[in-house]
Every structure is written in structure tokens, then in C-alpha cells.
Write a structure and sequence with these properties.
mainly alpha, two-stranded antiparallel sheet, 21 helices, about 45% helix, about 5% strand, globular
Amino acid sequence: MITSYKNYVSGFLVAGTLLFGSCQKESFVETNVNPEGLTSVPPASQFLNATVSIHDRDFEAYYDFYRRIMPWMQYSTGVTGNGQNFTQVYDNFGQRYNALYTTVGNALSDVERLVANLPAEEQPRYVHMIRIARVLKAYYAFYVSDVHGSIPYTEAFQARYGGTQTPKYDTQATLFATLDTELKEAITTLKTPQTAPQVALGTNDQYYGGNTQQWVKAANALRLKIAMRLSKRDPAKLKTIALEVLASPASDLMGSNADSWVFTTPAGFTGDANSNFFPEVLRASKPLVDFMWETQDPRNDAFFTPNGYSQANIDLLIANRQLPAGTRESTRRYVGGFTSPDQSQAAQNIQRFYTARTVRVNNATTTIDTLSFIQPRLFQASYAVNGTVGTGRNYFPVINYADFCLMRAELAATGITTESAKTWYDTGVTASLDWYDSVAQGAQVANYTPMTAAEKAAYLAQPKVAFNQAKALDLIASQQYIHFLRQPSEGWATWKRTGYPNATSTLVLPPLVSNGAVLTIPRRVPLGIPSPTEPNYENRKAAYDEMAKEPGFGRDLQDATGRVWWDKL
């Protein structure tokens, strides 16, 4: 089972809690401007507001994931393929930055401020709540810095409490170290019995229901996640942190999918306009579909829709004299679109793959498409299939057990730990299969058949899946890439960290060719050009000037093919 608040409260209460979180958005803006408005807000409510703000990001889903990262990483394409300059289009890219400074960071900082305003005798009851809020804030600061580099953190979120309105930027090196220190302190405190009974977050914590031991596991997984970003920049520091984390008692580390850090919501949570545009922009990609079909990956029908050539539709085409009599349904109905613009725009491919047939039956037009899409309910549970609105659940993973296992496999394969790379690889792949099996059923993915134990075992025995120490990093990264379909930003980070998948790896990602030239894939967001009239101009300019000294930074601030500090050239 997948862990989230659903393990702690009933579906009715969950739905009510989320409704509360959504209704608080407008008033929350007021409290950001006017701290006096916070005096009657319980600290736990601001934790909930932050959580909802992290995941209720329809513009980020649409622009950052669907339109940018997923096509760049060859998870998906546009309906007719990728445009000739699609790796050079960045409009509206980088939505996470504003979320940190307009809602998430402020709300989580408010938790501590609100506790500080309580009577002195009450404050000791909130020690654990404060640490849990710090863990979540550390995650989101890391998530933002991951693609932006230097950001305000140490001096941020304090302006309305008398702090500076012009916070200095923390370099990424400093930020990562700060976050690791904060996470260590949070883990220690969460494990320490308190003299006063602790006020639990309860249903305001829709990851773990306020379970402090689960937050210890999440914080340790986050320490490892941040440290993995140092694999090229500071491998010695990575090793130190990894060995420290993995020396923790087993009870402090993720041990099954039940420990996964995942936000789960009712179907309507993703019913916004940009999410509703999802199916029209996410054609399944040929490299991913081909690999998963060849290896008989049990996640196939969880990830992709079958094309339109069912026997029923074939019979319609036969009756309409568009196909010869006797045509039978293919054993393979999962077909991905070309990722290179030149291939998708080749005349023979347009005719064969991108020209859908149509038939009219009872005054209704049926479109029969050759290519597959990404399963819409995997990203938007409310999506209507055949006119029926979905009533399943949405799943927003932060760090789940499969991710944690595959990190351990990578650490073992690269000699950082002495654990068995094969054991953690097999465990991680199996955990991913199990997780997506639960997600597909919980999201009510159409045309999905639950996995069997035999399918999972057969998959692990496939020649391109079975663990082989000689190409361990290739195999591990390929499986990380597949697992991160639901977290494309992490798939992007895996590629930047490891160089896998690539044109010669087990899972082949071919060069993206446009007008005969190989396109360069972006590696960060365009940073924007500081204006002398903006309040924090001096600090922002100083931070960017320092970042620009790094080799590989790029031509200028707007060059998204440049690198941030951890993504060492």
C-alpha cells in the first residue's frame, strides 16, 4: 500500500480537509501581507496550506512538466511531434520559484512564529510540529534551488516579522549544507521523547498524519536525495552523508512502500483548466514505449493508453472500406511518437503514424489514432474517459520507497557503500512496479490490468533489466528514469547527474535532431535579468555574478543550457 494521509483518516475527512485547504487560498494571501491576520490561525493550518500550495501547481504541471521537461527528456511529445525549436522555448518555465516565496516558505515559517506567540507553557507541545515543518521547508527549498542555483533562504521569509526585505542569496553549496544540518537536527529532535505531550498535525499533515517516525524516515531519505546531487561536485561529502544516513537504525529508514512520502488527494484536486488540457499535449514517446514493450514491463498499461486500433474500431474501418476485410487487431497497441522533430515531420511518418482515420457512426465521428498517449488519469484522476469523469485518487510523490532503494543501489554500485547493488536494484524495481500497480488502480486508470507476481519476476529476468555489475549504473539510471515518469523533474536530474539514459545506454534516448542538427537539452531554468529598480537588485545581481564564474554556467543568465553549481561540467 502507498502511504499518505489516507492511511490515517477516512476518505470523507480527507476530502473535507482538502476542501478546507483550497478555500484558505484567498485568505492566505491576506495573511502573507498582514501578519496580524495570523493571530487566530492554528500553526497546523499553515502546514496544511503549505502542503496544498506545493502540489496544487497547475501552471507548473502544464508549463514545466508537460510542455518542457517531459518532451526534453523524451517521456512525451506533442500530438504531431516536437516542434523544430522545442528545446529553445522557455516561456513560463520555472514556476516553482514564486511558490516558495509567495506561499510555501512563508506558511512553513509561520508555523514557528505562531508557536512563538502562544503562551510559554504551551510552546513545548509543538517541538515536533516545528521540526516537521522544517523538513518540508527544506525539501521545497532544495526543489527550487535544484534548477535555479543560488536562492534566498537563511534570511528569507522574515520581512513581515521585522526581518530584512532584501535577503541575501545562499549559494547552492551553502544551502545544501544548511539543509543537511537542519534535517539532522530535525531527525534528532523527532527521535527525542519530549517532556510535554506533543500536539499532532493529524489530518493537517496529509503525507503521514503527523506520525513523527514516518517523518524521521522522510528526512533521512531527503538527506540522501540532496547528497546524491553532489556525485560530481563533492563525492567525498556525498559519501560522508550517505554512510551516516545508512548507519541509522532500520526503523529510521524507509523499508517499504508504506513509508513513501506521497501526497494523495481526491480526484477533483486536479480539475483545473491547465490539467484538463493534459491529454492534448502528452503523446507517449517512441523510445520509452519501445523499451517497455520489448522488456514486457508490467507498468506498460499504467503508463500508456492503447492506440485506437481495437478490433471493434477495425471492424468499423472495414465496413467503411478503409481497411481490407479480415484485418485483425495487432498484439501490440502501444506505439510511441518520434521524439526528433525531423522524424515526426518526415512525410512517410506523417502518413503512417500521424494521420488518424475517422469514421461516422450514427451521426457521430470516431477518430482512430495510431499512436498512444500517456495515461491521463496517472496525472489527473478526474479526467473523463468515454464521458465518465474519474473518481479515483491523485498521487504526488516526493520521495517514495522505490526512489530510496534505487539511490542505495547506485551508492553500492559506485563503491560508496558496501551494500549489495543487486539487492537494492531488485528491491527498487519491484517497489516501483508495486507502487505504480497501486497508483493505476487507485487512480482508476482505464484499460489497466493489475500486475501478477509472475509478470514482475519475468520482468526482472529480462536481459535488458536483469542486474549486471558491468553496466550497473546504466541499468540503475535507466530504471530510475522509467520510475520518474510521474516526477519528470527527477528524471531530468538523474540524466544530468549520471549521463543516463543516452544514445548508447540500455534504454536508448536518441539524439534530438531538427533540420539536420542535434539539439542541446536545457539543464536549468532561465534566471531572468535583474532590474536595477527591483528591491533586492544588489543581492540578486551579486548572486548571479558569482554563479556565472562557474565553468558551464552558459552564455548568459537566460541560457537554459547552462548549469547550476551541483551540475558540474
